[in-house]
Amino acid sequence: MKNYLFYFLPIFIFTGCLSTIPTLQERKESLFALSNKDFRQVNIQTSSFTLFSLQKTSTNCKNKDLKVYIEGDGLSWITRTTISANPTPITPTALELMNQDTSECKVYLARPCQYINSNECSKKYWTSNRFDEKVIKSFDDALNNLKNSYQNKNFTLIGYSGGAAIVALAASKRKDVNMLITVAGNLDTLKWTTIHNISRLDESLNPADYTKELENIKQYHLIGKEDEVIPKEVFLSYLSKFENKNNITYKYYDATHNCCWKEPYKKFLEELNIK
C-alpha cells in the first residue's frame, strides 16, 4: 500500500534547517533581482485566484505571438511530510529561462499562491489539486486577460516542471496556442506517480489524457538526462498516447531536474531561431 505521507513527491525538498528557508519576502526580492528592470509586477485577477505576473512596461505585441513562461511547482514541501505554507519557489527557474529569451513579447506567470498571500490560497492547490479544473480555468482566464491587454494574435506557452502540465492543459482548451515548449515537464502525472510508487493525483487533470486536443499544436520538449524527479519515461508515456506525433519534437540535455537549464535553453532558442 502506498504511504499517504508521500502522497505527492516534492519537486523541491528543503534539506537544511527550517529557520534558514528564505521568507516569502526574501524569495520575492530574489525574483525581482533576477528580473529585467523593464518588467513590473502585475497581479492578474481570475475567476479563482490572483496570479502574479511580470510584464514589460512598454511593448507592442499587437497581432504578434506572445510567449508566456509558467513557473514550476515551487516550494510545495519543506520535508517529505511537511507541506510548505507558501509555494513560492526559492529559485524561479521559469524566469531564468525567460531571461535567456530575446523576444520582445514575453510574460512571466507564477502559479496560484506564489509570490502572493491571499485568502484564496489553500495547500491543496500546491499538492493534490495543483492541476485541477479550477487551477486550469484560472490560467485560461489569465491568458484571456493578457490577450486583451496585448492584442496579440496567438501564444507560445512555455512551462517548467509542473508548469509544463499547466501549459499543456491550458492549450488543450484554446484555439490560439501556436506552440508548446516544456522543460523537465510533468506531462503524464499517472506515469509519474507510478514510477515513484506514490498515490495518484486523482484531484488533478492529467495532460496525457488530452493528447487528441493537443496533436495539432507544435510542441518542443526538453528532457534532462539526469532528471530523477521527472525522468524521461514520463515524457515517453505522454508521447505514446499520440496517434499523430508529427508535431512533436524532443531532445535530451545534460541536466538534472533543478540544475543547469539556462544554457541548454538559450542554445535551444538559438537553434530554432524562435523570435
Question: What is shown here, in short?
Answer:
By secondary structure, the chain is an alpha/beta fold. The protein has helices at residues 24-34, 93-99, 133-150, 162-171, 189-196, 211-214, 232-240, 262-272; strands at residues 39-45, 50-56, 65-70, 77-79, 82-83, 106-109, 154-160, 177-183, 218-224, 248-253.
Shape: globular
Helix content class: 25-40%
Mean pLDDT value: 91
Strand order of the largest sheet: 1-2-6-3-7-8-9-10
Q: What is the beta-strand fraction?
A: 15-25%
| SSE order, one letter for each helix or strand | HEEEEEHEHEHEHHEHEH
How many domains, in number, for the residues? 1
Radius of gyration: 17 Å
Biggest sheet: strands, sense, closure? 8 strands, mixed
Provide the structure class.
alpha/beta
What tags apply to this protein structure?
single chain, 275 residues, alpha/beta, Rossmann fold, 10 strands, 20% strand, globular, disordered N terminus
Give a description of the structure:
The protein contains eight helices and ten strands. It has helices spanning 24-34, 93-99, 133-150, 162-171, 189-196, 211-214, 232-240, 262-272, and strands spanning 39-45, 50-56, 65-70, 77-79, 82-83, 106-109, 154-160, 177-183, 218-224, 248-253. The chain has an eight-stranded mixed sheet with strand order 1-2-6-3-7-8-9-10, with helices on both faces. It has a two-stranded antiparallel ribbon with strand order 4-5. Helix 7 (232-240) links the parallel strand 9 (218-224) and strand 10. The termini are far apart. This is Alpha/beta hydrolase. GO terms for molecular function: hydrolase activity.
